[in-house]
Design brief:
CATH architecture of one domain: Sandwich
Radius of gyration: 29 Å
CATH topology of one domain: Immunoglobulin-like
Largest sheet: 8 strands, mixed
Distance between the termini: 7 Å
Order of helices and strands: EHHEEEEEEEEEEEE
Number of helices: 2
CATH class of one domain: Mainly Beta
Number of strands: 13
Shape: elongated
Structural class: alpha+beta
Helix content: 25-40%
Length: 221
């Protein structure tokens, strides 16, 4: 397979800055001082607050602010590590992965690793389109060997280009014993960081988490 798009690595630059955090803390501290001044102004002169009470309030505020600052710094650190992970996985671009995911069909056969239940006596491959409509259901060998889905109907007419979903249904004595998404092969076009995880993007904008990849190989020439 030859890549037909420009490969790229998307890295999200951390947006949390130390200056913004410091600005927020300064603003909150000013607010706290105003509240403290108001408390002193309107306290009961016959029963004033003890100095130890002020010390406790200051210590509590300081502890909360330190926790907020720590959380902000941890978020920034997480963003930095995520960006680093994306860069480290740049060498996955252009390789072929196998994962439980849909595939983009553009006229070329889609390679599938069915992996049915070992005790099954019948296995079906169910194909659905992007709208979730079942378009094909066919019996396949009771084997984990890869197979090619031709992408054509019973008359040999190709289906429309688009994203298709594949499911392997295993039967034993007429009963379904396993039904799960099929493992599909596809070439990585892009690596992105989103929601704290690394996503691999393939043809048709199909995205799969790197943690779901079960095999990785070089592109066949």
């Amino acid at each position: 397979m030859e890549p037909d798009t420009i490969n790229s690595v998307s890295v999200t630059t951390p947006t949390t800055s130390t200056s913004s955090v410091n600005s927020t803390i300064t603003s909150d501290f000013d607010t706290f001082l105003q509240l403290l001044s108001t408390q002193l102004k309107y306290q009961d002169p016959l029963d004033p607050l003890e100095s130890t009470d002020f010390a406790v309030q200051l210590a509590t505020f300081s502890g909360v602010e330190q926790q907020v600052l720590s959380n902000e710094l941890l978020v920034a650190l997480g963003d930095t590590l995520a960006a680093s992970s994306v860069a480290d996985m740049a060498n996955w671009i252009g390789t072929v992965i196998r994962a439980p995911m849909p595939a983009y069909y553009d006229g070329d056969p889609v390679t599938i690793a069915p992996n049915p239940a070992a005790i099954s006596d019948k296995v079906e491959l169910v194909v659905s389109n992007e709208d979730g409509e079942e378009i094909e259901r066919s019996e396949i060998p009771v084997s984990a060997d890869p197979i090619d889905w031709s992408g054509t109907d019973e008359y040999g007419i190709p289906y429309e280009d688009g994203v298709y979903f594949f499911e392997v249904v295993s039967y034993s004595e007429g009963e379904i014993i396993l039904q799960e998404p099929a493992q599909v092969y596809g070439e990585v076009q892009e690596v992105v960081s989103e929601g704290g995880q690394i996503l691999l993007v393939l043809d048709g904008d199909v995205a799969v988490a790197s943690s779901q990849v079960s095999a990785l190989s070089a592109v066949s020439q």
